[in-house]
Amino acid sequence: MNKKSNPQDQDLLDVNGLAVSRRTFLGVLSGALAAGTLMAPGALWAQPAGASLLRVGANANPSSLDPATGGSGSDHVFLFPIYDTLVTWDFDSLKAQPGLAERWEFTDSKTLVLHLRQGVTFHDGAPFNAEAVKTNLDRSRTAEFSNIRSDLGSVDSVTVNGEHTVTLHLKNPDTALPLILSDRAGMMVSPKALQANGNRVDRQPVGAGFMTFEKWNDGSEIVLKAFKGYRGDDKPALAGITFSIITDSATRLRAVMSGQADLAYHLDGRQKPLVEKMPTLHGVVGSTVYCYQLYLNMSRDTLADRRVRQALNHAVDRDAFIRGAMAGSGEAAYMNLPKSHWAYDAQTAELYPHDPDKARALLKEAGYADGVTLDMRGYNDQSSVQMQELLLAQFARANIKGRFRTGTIADMSAEYFAKKQGDLLLSAWTGRPDPSLSYSLMYNQESYFNAGDKAPPEGFAEALLASRSSDDLATRKEALAKVQRLVMEDALVVPLAFRESIVATNDKVQNLRNNLLGKPKFNNVSLKG
Q1: Residue 380: exposed, middle, or buried by beta-carbon count in 10 A (0-12, 13-18, 19+)?
Q2: In a 3-state reduction of DSSP, which class is residue 370?
Q3: Each residue of 100-126: pLDDT tens digit?
Q4: Three-class DSSP category at 85
Q5: What is the rounded CA–CA span in Å between residue 258 and residue 44?
Q6: 159-198 per-position pLDDT tens digit
Q7: Residue 465, SS3?
Q8: Spatial separation of the C-alpha atoms in residues 138 and 151, rounded to whole Å
Q9: Distance between CA atoms of residues 255 and 271, nearest Å
Q10: pTM score, two decimals?
């Protein structure tokens, strides 16, 4: 069928060599003006002459810049430049690689020895050594305020065996521990800074990464400066990084288009065609383990009944969700791992086909013949609101009612996870290098992300332990398949879709690579010209 053309769209403008309709161009321009992304030169992201300052459009204000106290997966992009980790990972496979620990070995099934890099200092001049590692690990696994105690739950004690040798004595075998030390638990904070700031550095971060902290204007910007004393092999050729917090993805993209940002990450599927077509933009796109999902508070009366949680899973049309909210750029999620992951379980994926009739029948069986009304929480950016509207329409067909109360990512995450408010939260699990850590962090009873403090189903702990007791991939896959089935049979979560990582840059940005976590790292990045 031929689409009738609009006369206004025949008036084409040349935008950097691309024919763009006047309507489209003016729409982008007016949107940018309304959002404040087109301003007088130097009003935003002022760049000193001759300096290679990377200007980044970020999607969310961090919850904290202390790796032990933060509660948002979006924090990692800010944390990575500040804190080097004991272990790091390959961008494509997430396999463990040397970091601040140049090598490690299990001397037996319950003893992990770390051999540390020498000559490393923290930003404040404090030495990085075995005592610093012990201080960090003991703090992360024992401090009352630490949100990552469960990450190190297998560690019984930490001993110093020399200036650059540390031994972790384990309660049980844990082959996932090296990769756990590539995440928050392995981010090393200066002991000197901890002592000076009451054992917390939420807003005064001091690490050993390639960037030092300069300032944080809450909800507006975070400024980092290159650490001249950094000795790592992957130091980027940058004078600093300025993150401007721009919660709307379209506005983040316009910041790059207007020349006031060099890079914008966490873009939505609907921006992908524009990134691909604009000659002034370059896209870095790849698959991720980043999963949009509904977190469920199972301490609430309604959701305490498994049949209600199963009804929510049947009520969701995941393919329609991807088409409507993600412009088709995603993969339907039936568990917390995508099809490409080595631990994906095809049997679990068959549990919840879209079936509103089945959802209503489950509600009736649970004693809710007239349906249920839920207190829902979510974020207030345009993309999240669109997702909420689509879900509400799908829920209505299954006799599930309610409304979303919205706010910023940091505020609503804290309200839901820390204050235990609301029945469910539409958010995402941003993934972890090892899948056993993801399942531990979300579903263990004491986990921060288990808002209802619900005990996992019988057999979960044993299967999770089995997945970390062997380094044989087939053995781990079998154990993790059981973990995934237990989680989904008990409907502890409503997974929706895995997103693509979509990053837009200008032609100055060099050597930026996608990684499977979908959280940009700026190692080896430079700016041309």
Answers
A1: middle
A2: coil
A3: 999 999 999 999 999 999 999 999 999
A4: strand
A5: 12
A6: 999 999 999 999 999 999 999 999 999 999 999 999 999 9
A7: helix
A8: 12
A9: 13
A10: 0.79
